[in-house]
Design a protein that fits this description.
heterodimer; A: about 280 residues; alpha/beta; Rossmann fold; seven-stranded mixed β-sheet; 10 helices; B: about 375 residues; eight-stranded mixed β-sheet; 16 strands; globular
């Protein structure tokens, strides 16, 4: 888009350095996802003053505070609802939601499906580390079957959500997934998501070494990052299509890109007609 | 907007008052007996360039309203008891982050789904203490359609001026009354605007302890790029757990409302100057009491009425003064005894306070109040 003209990406230009050191554990993928997001913001040449980052509660929710932009750390599961009001009130802002697997799919699942359905111009970046990290490692809606967590001491028995399939079914006009291991690829998906007009859902597969990896003997960060890739398969539908649950293979890349009426534009057009006194 | 009709329904007056106050964003979820507010907003807001959205639930409704207000647009939601219960978390969020917003609660019979079409006043204490933690709250309790209109405007003005959520509570009777209303001429309505921070300030502290305890708000896009969080935060907006800073941050919120109590408080008194028996009531019950006072005086019983219009913070001085002169105080309310708790605290001697309650979905009639005061007079 503007890549040629833009100066090289310096993450420090987009961070609140006064907030350092950050709170994330060594090996956590959330910082990588943050880097990918800011890289995308840089390449799109989005004015920091016009960037609003809305986050929920959990490890993912804390990521927003490091961004030198208008940042809103809201309540558990509700960042999409806050962002809906903010974007409708201020269509001039680029609104990015940072959420987690628990925040977005458990307590906030209802807001997610309705945000997908409405197709308001928001970008929802869900950092999926398969666990409730902030509260000490409880099972989440994306924890794989058999995994040990502090609330599944005998192994998880609940199937996991395929968040992208959920978003697609609910009507999101853009759906993408990448692993934090491939930061440039993740950046590209996020960049396409922000540039997309309509509701864009991006799942970033992150890793929780300290709490989840250790308990399940998944190795240190390098081992966990390597396994991210082996759990992936290309976006093109293949033989394993029926397997929607992790640890079965998930599709990566831009999975859905379709044109649907953008909710804010529809609202503003309706408002203009009403103001002009047009009868329905 | 079309010419004002000679009579208005309470819920509709609420919506029109909000628009007159500058509300340009409404998010809500259908619930009896408040739905006419959302319905009116869905029709009127787009005509003035505003946004109406029906959200997926009441939690999302108040979240969206707060989101819009964070963007700089005056915003509100409307609900009834069950929805108000769901909004409590975000009432706390708005209180801590000091985001102006207005929450209308049309009270119906509870608890739980209760009696959706029957009136009650069961949410008075929920409005005060429903969300967790120590927080200030402003709650208004109009008693007529005219007052719903004017108090909704006042709710916005207080919310914007004081950077606080404001709750407006009224019972289903007043919500569905059809009464003659005099709407003020356009331009004659006093509308308060938020204090905005300037965009070029260095080291701007979005939650600084200003003289009036109301920090100016940063509008996204103006260049200040601040952080807003529901975590206890210091003046710079970032979280803290340092005891001195955390304690002061919450205390300032409480002090802010107390500091501006004179501006917030509003109440009506009827014959309390020489009253032996003071009735305390809000909403439709206060109107029954207003009728009971002259009836009692006609038969020689010196009755009076204290009607809080601002319910929270409660008009403490007026209550103390009226109770000091009275032989007995009667708290009449459509709940099992909520306002009575506050009045007992302020009446000097709790034994002075008598109660008249209904929790059966029926309003309290003037005759019931007359009978109760007669009984108190006979035993006094």
């Amino acid at each position: 888009m503007h890549d040629v003209a833009s100066p090289p990406f310096e993450i420090k230009d987009y961070l609140r350095l006064a907030m350092m050191p950050h709170f994330m554990c060594s090996g956590c993928g959330h910082g990588v996802a943050l880097r990918a997001l800011l890289w995308a913001v840089h390449e799109l040449q989005i004015d920091k003053n016009k960037l609003a980052v809305v986050s929920g509660i959990g490890c993912s929710g804390r990521v927003g505070a490091y961004i030198d932009a208008n940042t809103f750390h809201t309540t558990h599961g509700r960042p999409l609802a806050f962002a809906t009001g903010l974007k409708l009130a201020r269509p001039d802002l680029t609104v990015v939601v940072i959420t987690g697997d628990g925040d977005c799919l458990a307590i906030g699942g209802n807001h997610l499906i309705h945000a997908c359905r409405r197709n308001l111009d928001l970008t929802c970046l869900m950092l999926n580390n398969e666990v409730y990290g902030m509260t000490g490692g409880q099972v989440s809606p994306t924890t794989a079957i058999g995994r040990l967590t502090t609330t599944t001491p005998d192994g998880n028995v609940e199937p996991a959500f395929d968040a992208c399939a959920l978003a697609e079914a609910a009507g999101a006009s853009f759906v993408g997934r990448e692993v934090t291991r491939q930061t440039p690829a993740l950046k590209n998906v996020i960049k396409a998501a922000i540039a997309h007009k309509g509701f864009a859902f991006v799942e970033a597969l992150s890793d929780c070494v300290e709490i989840y990896g250790r308990k399940n003997d998944l190795g240190e960060s390098p081992e966990m990052l390597l396994s991210q890739k082996s759990a992936m398969r290309p976006a093109k539908p293949g033989a394993a299509d029926g397997e929607s649950f992790r640890p079965h293979r998930l599709r990566e890349g831009i999975l859905v890109e379709r044109e649907r009426p953008e909710y804010g534009e529809v609202c503003r057009a309706r408002s203009a007609r009403a103001a002009a006194g047009e009868k329905r | 907007m079309s010419a004002a009709p000679p009579s208005l329904q309470g819920n509709r007056a609420c919506a029109l008052g909000a628009i007159a106050a500058g509300c340009r964003f409404f998010a809500g979820y259908p619930i009896t007996p408040s739905s006419e507010i959302a319905e009116t907003m869905s029709r009127e807001l787009p005509r003035v360039g505003g946004v109406f959205i029906q959200m997926e639930d009441e939690i999302g409704s108040l979240a969206a309203a707060i989101g819009a207000s964070l963007g700089g647009v005056k915003a509100m939601t409307a609900t009834s008891g069950p929805g108000f219960s769901l909004m409590q978390e975000h009432l706390g969020y708005a209180a801590l982050t000091e985001v102006p917003c207005v929450i209308i609660d049309v009270m119906r019979g509870g608890p739980s789904t209760g009696m959706p079409t029957r009136p009650a006043q069961g949410d008075l204490m929920q409005a005060r203490w429903g969300t967790h933690g120590d927080h200030p709250i402003v709650a208004l309790a109009p008693a007529s359609v005219q007052e719903i209109y004017s108090e909704t405007i006042r709710a916005f003005n207080l919310a914007e001026r004081l950077r606080t959520p404001v709750v407006v509570l009224f019972d289903e009777v007043v919500a569905h009354l059809l009464e003659s209303v005099t709407l003020p001429a356009p331009g004659s309505i006093v509308v308060a605007e938020r204090k905005w921070a300037k965009g070029d300030e260095r080291d701007f502290h979005p939650f600084a302890e200003t003289d009036d305890l109301i920090p100016p708000m940063a509008r996204p896009g103006d260049g200040l790029r601040v952080h807003t969080t529901g975590l206890t935060h210091t003046a710079d907006g970032f979280p803290t757990q340092q005891p001195a800073l955390a304690g002061r941050a919450v205390q300032r919120l409480v002090d802010k409302i107390e500091r501006h109590r004179d501006e917030i408080e509003r109440f009506e008194t009827v014959n309390t100057e020489d009253a032996d028996f003071v009735i305390v009531a809000v909403g439709i019950v206060a109107r029954a009491a207003r009728r009971a006072v002259p009836d009692l005086r006609a038969e020689g019983v010196k009755a009076g009425l204290l009607r809080p219009i601002t319910l929270w913070p409660f008009p403490e001085r007026a209550m103390r003064a009226a109770a000091a002169r009275a032989r007995r105080v009667l708290v009449a309310e459509m709940n099992a005894g909520q306002l009575a708790l506050e009045v007992e605290r302020l009446a000097g001697a709790p034994a002075k306070v008598a109660r008249l309650n209904r929790i059966d979905g029926e309003p309290i009639a003037p005759a019931e109040i007359v009978a109760k005061i007669r009984e108190l007079a006979a035993n006094a």
